[in-house]
Amino acid sequence: MFKRTKVTDGTATGQGPDAENWDGKEVGFRKKSKVPGVMITQYIEKLPEGKSHPDFTRKPIALTIQEGKFAFFKAIVTGDPKPTVVWSRNNGDVSDPARYQSKYDPNSNEHTFEMPHVKPDQADTYKCFAKNEYGQAMVTVVLNVIEVGFKMTKAPQQQAEVANCNFKKVLKRRSKVVPKAEEPEKKEGEIDPKFWELLMSADKKDYERICAEFGVTDFRWMLKKLNEMKREREEEQAEFVKNLSDLKPIHINADGTASFELEFDLLDPSSSIYLYKDGEMIPYTKELGDKMKHCLRKVGRKYIFSMRDLMPEDAGFYQLDVEDVNMFSTDFKMVDFLVKIQEVKAMEREDAVFECVISAPLSKLMWFGKNMPLEQGDKYDIEVSEDKLIHRLVVKDCMVVDKGIYAACAGIKSCNAWLVVEADKGAPKGKKTARKTTRAGGSGTDLQKVAQEQQQILDKEREERKEKIKAAREAAAEAAAAEEPEKTADSGAGKDKGAAVKVERIDKTSVAATTTVAGDSGSGHSAGKASGGAKQDGSHADAGGGHSAGKASGGARKDGSIADAGGGHSAGKASGGAKQDGSHADAGGGHSAGKASGGAKQDGSPADAGGGHSAGKASGGAKQDGSHADAGGGHSAGKASGGAKQDGSHADAGGHSAGKASGGAKQDGSHADAGGHSAGKASGGAKQDGSHADAGGGHSAGKASGGAKQDGSHADAGGGHSAGKASGGAKQDGSHADAGGGHSAGKASGGAKQDGSHADAGGGHSAEEASGGSRQDGSLADAGGGHSAGKASGGAKQDGSLADAGGGHSAEEASGGARQDEPLADAGGEPGITSGLSDIHAIRGQPAELTVKMNTDCDGAWFKDGEPLKSGGGISITKDANIHKLTIHSCRDTDSGLLRFVSGDLSTEGRITVGDVPEFDEDDLHKFSKPVIVRVGQNAAFKMPFQPQESLTVSWFKDGTELKDGGGVKIVREPNHSRLLLRDCLRSDSGEIKIQLKNPFGAVEATSQLIVLDRPGPPEGPVETVETTSSVIEIKWNPPKDDGGSAVTNYIIERQERGHSLWTKLGDVSAEKTSFRDRNVTHGKKYSYRIYAENPQGLSDSLETADSIMAGIMILSGPPGKPKVVSTSKTCINLTWTPPEDDKGVPIIGYQVEKRKKDTNQWLALNAINEPIEDVNYAVKDVTEGAEYEFRVSAINESGAGDASPPSAMACAKNPNMRPCFKDPEDFLVVRAGNSVRVKISYEAEPPPHITWLKDDEPIAPWINVINTEGMSQLVIPSSKRSDSAIYTIKAKNSVGEAFFDVEVRVTDEPKCPGPVELEQTVYGKVAVSWVPSPDQELDDRLYYVVSQHDSNTRMWKTVADRLFANTYTAHNILPGIEYHFRVYAKNDMGLSDPSQSPTWGANSNRVPISSNGVSSMEISFERPPSILVPLKVHTPPKGYQLYMTCAVRGCPTPNVSWYLNNTCINSDKNYYITNSCGVCSMYILRVRENDGGEYRVVAVNSLGKAECSTKLTVRD
C-alpha cells in the first residue's frame, strides 16, 4: 500500500466559497470524476460505508448570449450527505441579488444560477462548488455576452451618431446587410448588396450562377469591381485574422442540421465573433446544448456554425463577422417539391425509378433507402437534369430485399414512397432469372413540362431583374426625351386658358333671346355617324348619345347654330369652340389618350383636331376671326375642349370622356351640347338668353343635366351612357329640355315646364326607370326609347292623354300613358322598336324566350342566320298587340345562332348561344366534401377535377371570401382540375372552403371543411376563489374558448408559493371538471396557481391567478421600533431598529425599509417584500449627497408587510465633521538626481481642508507643483537636483482643526569612490587601513564606507567592515606569509561606489633582515612558466546531453587561463560554465547544441610564458 500525496486547495482568494459560509479544510486527496472538467478534492483517505464525496452528474454548459437576455447555468450534483452548492466568479462577486440568483429544484435536483437582463460586465469565468463534510467538487464555465450597446472603443463614433440623432445604430449592432423590414426603397435596377457579399465568399465556378440569379450580365464590370472590393475586404480582415481559408457554404447534413465552415487564426484571441441572419444579430452557444438553436464550435483552426430544428423561416442570408469585419457570407435557400416521388411496384430483376421535381435548381438531393443514405454506385444511379429541377433515383436490379421506404430530402422538405418488389412467379425454382431491361415506376406526370414551366418562371424572374438594370441605365435618356412634349403641352394649355377668359368677358356683355326647343334625334347603337337634322325654326336636333365608333356631330341650323355634338367615347374633356355667328363648333368625341389640337388656318380658323387615338391633348386651335376649330372626337385620355370664337360661342364638347364635358358659351347665350361618353359630369353651358345648351348624351359615370335658360327653359339633358342621373333643365315658361336617352345606370327624366309640359325623357340604356315629365296642360313629354333594363312609360297629361312611350330596346314593357279624356293614346306617331333583341345564353334542354316590343301594333318576321323562322319544330312564334315573342321549348345545340326580327324598315337582332352549366362528378364531389384535417404549421391541399370547358372561371373561397394566389395561398388551374394549397396553416385558417365554377350559363359550387388542429387556447379566466381556509384553497375557472380542433381531455394545475420561483405540479382533473381543491396549504401563506388545458395536440398556454391567494386570514405583524441613524456619509446612511413588540404569533421573515426625501410626500421602498432584510440593521446606499432623508421600517411575515414604524429623525447624507488626519504617510523618500519627485499624502477631513506645502518651513519654489484631489495631495518636482533635498511639510486645515506632517526628501546619486588607501602595521597581527574620504562625504550625511578583504590563502573577497562613518579600519588576524588586499567602497541610499584598491600586504612587505653570521646561503626561486599537467580529452556527446571538459595547469605566478572555441574566446559566454580551482580548469555545458561542436583550446599565460592544449568535440544526433 502506498501513501497518496496530500495537496492543498489552490483556490485563490475571491474565487472559492466565502469564509463565512465555509469552514473549508486545507488538505485533501485528488479524485477523478466521470464527467470531464470536474475537479474533486476528498478530505479523508477512506470514506465511511454508504458515504460519498460530491460529484457532478451534469455540469454547466458554456453560454454565449446577447446583452439584456436571460442567462442561466444548470448543474446536478450528487453526494452523501447532500452537498451544498455555491457559485462564484473569477473577477468579481455574485452577492448582488438583483443580478445573481441561485435556485434549487428538489423535484429535478437541479441547481440553477440565473442572471436576468445580463450585462457585458458579467462576462467572466464562473465556478460552481459542491461541498459536504467528505470533500469538494468544483467545475468552471464561461459566459460570453454579445454587447449591443455602448463600447469604449467606439465611443467617438457613437457620440457622433448620437449627435446626429441616429440612436438606432448606437443601441444595436447591425450588419452591413440591412434587414428586409428596414430596407430602403430600392431604385429601379439597383443591385442587392447581398450579391457582392456572396461573390466575395464564393468559388469562381459559382460566379456565373450568382450573376444569373441577380440578373447581372456585365461580367467584365462585375469582375473589376469585385477585385477592388476584395482588396479592401482583405485589408480589413488582416487587422483581426490571418490564414482565412477553406470557406464552405451552408448545407444540410444527414442528421437534419445545417452548417457552414471556415478556417482562420485570430490575431487577438479576445476578439468578438458575431453571427447575423438577414442583417439581424443572432445569439449562439459554443456547445451543442439543448436550449440554443444556433451553435458556433471551434475545432482546431476550423469554426463550424450549425443550426438545428430547421424551419422554413430559417432560410436567409447568413454572415460571420469578427468585430466589425465580415469574414464569410452564405445564402440558405429552401426548396419545395412540385412533384413528389410515387410508389413503385417492380418485378424482381427489374430497375425501379423514383422521380421528383423541385421548385429551385439544386445540384444534389439526399436520397435515403430504409433510413440509410444512398450514393451513386453499382446499385444506385442518381440522375439530375440539366436545369437541375428533375431528380431521379434508379434502383438497379431490384431484389425482394430492396423493398421498403425510399425518401428524397431537399433541406427540411422531404417526400417518401414505397418500393414494392414482387417475385417473378414464372422463374424456374432454384435458378436465378436473367436481369430485365425494363424500368418500373416514375411519377406518372409529364415531369419535363412541369420543369419547363418552373424554369420559365425562374427565367422570367431573371429577365425582370435584367430589364430593371437595363431600364435604370436608360432612365436618364428617356427622362430627358420625355420633358420636351410636356413643355409643349404646358404652353398649349396656357393659350386655352387665355381664350376661355376672353369668352367669359364677351358673355357678360352680350344679351340675346331665344325660345327654341331642340327636337330629339334618337339614340340608337350605330357603327356609323349619327347626327341630328336641322330645324327651320333654328332649334337644335339632338345628336343622341349612341355607341358610335365614328364621329357624332350636330347638324347645321339656319340661324347659324350647331346641333348637339353627340356622345363619342372620350377619356378627357371635350368642348366645342365658339363661332362668329354665335354657334359652337363640334367637339367630336373620339378615343384619345392625350391632347390633339388642330392647327391654325389663314382665315383664322384652326384645323380640326381629328378624332384619332392620340397620346396628347385634343383641343381646337384659335382662328384669326377669334373662333376655335373643332376639338375633334378622338379617343382621348386627356382633356378635349373647344376654342373660343369672336362671336363668343363655343364648339360642342362631345366624346367619350373620363373627365367633364361641357359646352362652350355662345353670344346668343346658348351653349353647345356637352355630350359624349363621360366618366365625369356632362352639363350644358349657359346662354345669354337664359337657356342652356343640351347636355348631350354620352356614356357618363357622372350626372348629365341641361343648363338653365333666362326664359326659364333648360337645354336637353342628352341621353348618354351615364352611371348617374340625367335630367332636363327648367325653363321660365315652365318647360324642361329633353332628358335624352343615353345608356345610363341612373334615372333619366324630363324636366317640368311652367305650361305643365315636360321635356322628353329620352331612352338611354338605363338600369332605372325612364319616364316623361308632366306638363301643366296634362301632357307628358316622350319617354324616349333607349336600351333600358327598367320600365319606360309615358307621363299623364291633364287632358287625359299619355305622351309617347318612345321605343328603346327594353326587356320590360313600354306602354303609352292614359289620358283623362280618352281611354288610350297612340303609342308614338310612327312605328318604332321600343325594346329590341340582345345576346342571350340558353341552357341546353331548358326553354328560352325572345321578345320584341313595338310602339305600334304592326307585323314582323323572325329570321335565324338569314333563314326565315316559322312556328313548329320546337319553336313557337306569337304576337300579342305590339309584343312579338319567339319561344324555344327545349334548347339544343342547333338552336344557337343569330336571330333577327324585321318589321318594315325596322329591325333588331341578337345572338343565342346554347350550352350547359358546369357540373361536378358525384364521386369527386363526395370526395371533396370530406373535411381536410391538418396540424398547425402543416400544408392543407384541396383538389377538384372537372370537365374542360371554354369560358370557365374557377374561384376558391374561404368562409365566403375569395382567395387570391400569393403569400401562403397557392392556386393551380389546369384544364381538367384545380388545386388549392394553403401553406403553414394556422388555427385561424379553419373554416369552409368552397370552389366555384362559372360560365355564361351559370355557376356551380362545392364545399369542404378545413380543420386545423392545434393545442387548445388557455382556459378562460379570471380564476375565481371558491373557498380559502387555513387548510384548503378551492379555485374555479372556465373552459377555453378554442379547444384547438379536438376536445380538451384534462386540465393540469401548478402552484407557486409566494417568495419562491419554483412551480410545483399539484395534479390534473378531467375536462368535465373546472375546479380544484388544494388541501396541502399552510395557514397565512400566499399561493399562485396556473391552469393548463390539454388535448391530443399538447398543452395550452397557462391561465394564472392575478393575485396570490392566502390560505386563511391575513395576520400582519405590529410595527417595529423607531429606526435610529447610526452613522452617515455622503454615500451611505446606516440604520438600526428593534423588532416589533407584538408579532401576532406569526414568525417574522424579515423587514422592509422605506425612505422619504425631505419636502416630499412619497415613501419609496428600498427592498421588495419578497426580498426581506433579515437583520435589524441596514446600510442605505441609494442616497444623494447633501440630501436629507427619514426612514421607517415594516415587519414582514407570511401574510406580507405589517404596519410601519414611526419615522426616524432626519439624516443628511454627508460625511461627519472631522479634524484632518493623514492616512499611512511615508516620512522618508530617496530620489536619484534628475528624476521626478512625487510625494503623495492621503488624508481624511470634513469639510475639505486647505492644503499648504512648506520646504524647510519656507514656502516652496514656484516650479514645484502641488496637485490636490479629493482625499489626496501630491507634491511634484519635475526634474530633481541635490539642492531639492529638504524636509517638506504638508499642512491641512479646516474649521475643525489642522494637522501637520513632515516628509524628508533626499535627492542624491551614486557616490564617488574614496581616495588612495594606505596600510600600516602597528601591532603584530593587526593592520590599520586608512583612506582619503569620498568627495561626496560632505554633501551626503548618510554616506558611509564598506571594507572588503582578500587573502592569498582563500583567494576570495569578503566584507570585513560595513557602515563605517570613519576613514580608518583596523584589520585583525593578519598572519605572516599570506598576502592581503583591501578594497574600500563609499555607499549611500543609491548604492555602492567603485572600490579604492589598497597596496599588497604580504609575507615580504615588513620582513626583518636576518644576518648570516658569515654563513653563505643560496637564494631559491619557485617561479616557473605555465605547463599542462593533464590535457583535454576528445568528447562525442549526443545532442541535448550535458558535458564536462577538464584539464590541469601549473605555473608560478598563477597563470591566467582562457578557453577558446574555433579560435573564439568563450570565457564570457553564458552558455558555458567555466571554473579554475587550484589549477584544475573545468568547463560545463548543460545541454549540448549542434553549434557547440568544433575545436576547443585552453591557453594558460603568466609573466614567464604560455602553455596550451586542444581537443575536438563532435555532437551526435
Task: Show the helix and strand layout.
Elements: E1 7-8, E2 27-32, E3 39-42, E4 52-58, E5 63-66, E6 71-80, E7 84-89, E8 101-105, E9 110-115, E10 124-132, E11 135-146, H1 155-163, H2 167-171, H3 193-201, H4 207-214, H5 219-237, E12 241-252, E13 258-266, E14 273-277, E15 280-281, E16 294-299, E17 302-307, E18 316-322, E19 325-332, E20 337-339, E21 344-347, E22 351-358, E23 366-369, E24 372-373, E25 380-384, E26 390-395, E27 404-410, E28 413-422, E29 439-441, H6 447-509, E30 590-591, E31 595-597, E32 617-619, E33 661-662, E34 682-683, E35 704-705, E36 726-727, E37 748-749, E38 770-771, E39 792-793, E40 814-815, E41 833-835, E42 840-843, E43 848-854, E44 861-864, E45 867-868, E46 875-880, E47 883-888, E48 897-903, E49 906-915, H7 922-929, E50 932-935, E51 940-945, E52 953-958, E53 961-962, E54 969-973, E55 977-982, E56 991-999, E57 1002-1013, E58 1020-1028, E59 1033-1038, E60 1050-1057, E61 1064-1070, E62 1075-1078, E63 1086-1095, E64 1098-1099, E65 1103-1104, E66 1109-1110, E67 1124-1128, E68 1133-1136, E69 1150-1157, E70 1164-1165, E71 1177-1180, E72 1188-1197, E73 1200-1204, ...
Parallel strand pairs: 5-11, 21-28, 22-29, 31-32, 33-34, 34-35, 35-36, 36-37, 38-39, 39-40, 42-49, 50-57, 76-83
Antiparallel strand pairs: 1-2, 2-3, 3-11, 4-6, 6-9, 7-10, 8-9, 10-11, 12-13, 13-17, 14-15, 14-18, 16-17, 18-19, 20-22, 22-26, 23-24, 23-27, 25-26, 27-28, 41-43, 43-47, 44-45, 44-48, 46-47, 48-49, 51-55, 52-53, 52-56, 54-55, 56-57, 58-59, 59-62, 60-61, 60-63, 63-64, 63-65, 63-66, 67-68, 68-71, ...
